Amino acid sequence: MKRLSLMLAAILLLASFKPEEGYKTGSKAADFKLKNINGKMVSLSDYKDAKGFIVVFTCNHCPFAKKYENRIMALDKKYSVKGYPVIAINPNDANEVPEDSYQNMQARAKEKGYSFPYLLDETQATAKAFGATRTPHVYILQKSNTDFVVKYIGAIDDNSDDEIAVKEKYVEDAINALLVGKEVPVTSTKAIGCTIKWKKA
Amino acid sequence: MYKLLSILFLLSMYSGVKVKPVNLEQLESATLKCDNDTLYVVNFWATWCQPCVHEMPYFEKANAAFAEQKVKVVFVSLNSIKELPQVEQFVNNKQLKENVFLLNAGNPNNWIDKINSSWSGAIPATGMYRKGKKVFFREGEFTQNQLDSIIKTKIQ
Question: What's the pTM value of the predicted model, to 2 decimals?
Fold first, then answer.
C-alpha cells in the first residue's frame, strides 16, 4: 500500500511537470497583444510592413539574458531595416523575481536605449502558447499573408560567453536565408538559460 | 616546524574543495553511464541561477538522508570555465561535501540532447541514473518533498 501511494504520488508529480507543447518550426504563431514599456499595447499585426519578426523571450535578471543583451540590440539594428524587427517579451512573474517587474523593465530599456519593444507577458499566456522555457529563447517568425510561420526556435548563437569566439550565428543565418528565399539552415537549437519563472499556482 | 607546515598543508587540502572540470564523456563515465547499483542524482546548476542555489540544500539533505541506500548526489555546474574560481569559492563558502563537476563541453547545442532530448537547456535540471541508465529527468526546481519522494521510488 505504501509503495502504491508512493508510486501514485510520483505519477501525480510527473504529471504536474509535463512540459507545454508549444510551437515547432512550421507552426503558425498566434498574434498577441502585450503592454510595452511605454504603456502602449503591441501586436504583431501592428507591423504592416514587416516581413517577419525576431521574437525573443528575455528578461532583466537572467545572467544569460544579460550576456546576450547587446547582441539582441545589434540584431534589431541590423534586421529591423530589412523587415525583421526584434520583439522582446519578458515572461517572468515579478513576484518570483522582483528585478523583472514592469518598472524595472522600463528602467532597463531606458538605460540601455532599446530600439525595440520590450513587452510584459503578464498572464504568461504568450510564453505558454509559444512553448518558451527559458530566457533568452528566440522564435523567428515569417509573415505569410496573415499568418506568422515559425521558422527557427532556439539560441542566438553558439557561444554565450564570448561573442568574438562565436562560430555559428544561428539567428543571423536563419534570417539571411529567409531574406533571399532560402530554407533556414538550422531550424532549432538548444542552449543553457534561466528557466522562465512561472506564477506559483 | 615541518610538522606545523605539513598540518597546514593538510588543512589547506581539506578546505580546498575541488571542482573538477569535465567533458561529456568524463561526466558520463563518472555518473550517467556508471554501471553499478548506486542511484546518481545529477543536478545541473550554476552559481548565477537563483532557483538552483535555492534548491541545493534539498539535495544536500537528500544526500545525507539516503546515504545508506546507495544514493549519490552530484552537482554539475554549467558555469563557463572562466568562472571556475567563482564556482570553487561558492562551493567552499557553502561547504558542499558532494562531488562538484564543471561541465566544459563547448556548444551546448551539441550536448544538451545527449543528456536528455526533452531538456530545453534551462536550469535547474536534474537527472537520475542507475546501472548506467537514465531513470528520471526533469527541468525545473524541486521542493524537498518532491525530491525525496522521487528518490524513494527510484531506489525501490
Answer: 0.85
User: B98 vs A31, A196, B41, B127, CA distance in Å?
Assistant: 47, 27, 11, 16
| Dist. CA B43–CA B115, nearest whole Å | 12
Sign of CA dihedral A129, A130, A131, A137: negative
Tell which CATH architecture fits domain A22-195: 3-Layer(aba) Sandwich (3.40)
CA-to-CA distance for B95 and B91, rounded, in angstroms? 6
Structural domain span for residue B149: 38-155
Chain A residues with CB under 8 Å of a chain B CB are 3, 6-7, 9-10, 13, 17, 19, 61, 63-64, 97, 133-134, 137, 154-155, 158-161, 167-168, 189-197
B45 occurs within a structural domain: yes
For chain A, say whether B153 makes contact (Cβ under 8 Å).
yes
Is residue B7 included in any domain, yes or no? no
- Half-sphere exposure of A134 toward its Cβ, with a 13 Å CA cutoff? 26
Tell me if ipTM is over 0.90: no
Set of chain A residues whose Cβ sits within 8 Å of the Cβ of B50: 61, 97
- At A199, the amino acid letter reads K
Interface test with B, best of A194, A197, A199, A200 (most B CBs within 10 A): A194
Q: What is the pLDDT of residues A83-132, one digit of tens each?
A: 999 999 999 999 999 999 999 999 999 999 999 999 999 999 999 999 99
User: Would you say B96 and B17 are in contact if contact means Cβ atoms under 8 Å apart?
Assistant: yes
Residue B60 lies in a domain: yes
pLDDT tens-digit series, residues A145-165:
999 999 999 999 999 988 999
DSSP helix/strand/coil, B8: helix
For the CA atoms of B57, B62, B65, B67, the dihedral, rounded to the nearest 10 degrees, stands at -110
B103 Cβ under 8 Å from any chain A Cβ: no
